[in-house]
Amino acid sequence: MEIIDNLDDWRDRYARWKLTNEMRDDTVGARYPWVENRHAPFTPARRALPMLNLALITSAGAYIDGTQAFDTGVAGGDTSFREIPIEVGAADLKWSARGYDPAAVLTDMNSQVPVGRLKEFEGNGIIGQLNPVWWSLCGFIPSAGRFAGTTLPELVERVVRYEVQAALLVPASRLCHQTLGLVGRAVEAAGIPTMMLAVDREASERVRPPRAVFYAGEFGCVAGKPEWPEHQRRILDEALRLIEPIDQPGVRKLSVSLETEVEMGRGEK
Q1: What digits encode the pLDDT tens for the residues 104-113?
Q2: Are 70 and 138 in contact (CB under 8 A)?
Q3: pLDDT band at 172 (very low <50, low <70, confident <90, very high)
Q4: Which residues of 144-163 are buried (b: 16+ CB within 10 A; e: fewer)?
Q5: Beta bridge partners of residue 83, listed in sequence order
Q6: Strand partners, 94
Q7: What does the mean pLDDT of the chain come to?
Q8: Is the pTM value of this prediction over 0.90?
Q9: Mind giving me the DSSP string for 165-198?
């Protein structure tokens, strides 16, 4: 199955869009040719969550301080990725933020890169193991065709080499939903189940990731509100526990939004 359906047609639409020079700063404009897939690859989960080696793939533009930053000035987007050990903490990370407000992730990296929460899940047996490295992208990539053709094969090769058994995808911006949706399709086509968090249902349904869960959250803190660990745990726990029972591609709605509204109404947060 193709990562982008009718790729030649998409490339033609993208070429015409570029001629209009519609993109301004960190927005692609109303006429951007979003990838629209009709079908999705799908790999059933063959192991229960407490037995899985889970990988994290995010698109908030994280990189290790002192290493090369993502280039946020490239019109088609920086399609490279970084491989970051889970031991690297927030103090040693920098952010090439494009398409989203980095305020939340600067306050609490777990709101967008939930390594701390996933380590807790590993410690209490919710997941079997957190993969020793996670992968970082700057997900504002309008040139989806170039990303799919050049970066994705390399990224999937690294994920397979680590013997990853499931992957959690966390987009940061609206365009990141398309980028990580393509990542999910490529990883799933390689035989590895995925789950993408989403706060933009329309963008997610267009690109058709194999598995996605949606809730009414915000760009820049898709993994949960900053400095609210319980909110983050609730989102991640509900999303991850759906990897195994989901038996066909689709976007599911999480119940976390309703629970959060109740807590806020009671003054608990």
Answers
A1: 999 999 999 9
A2: yes
A3: very high
A4: bbebbeebbeebbeebeeee
A5: 135
A6: 63
A7: 94
A8: yes
A9: SEEEEE--SHHHHHHHHHHHHHHHHTT--EEEEE
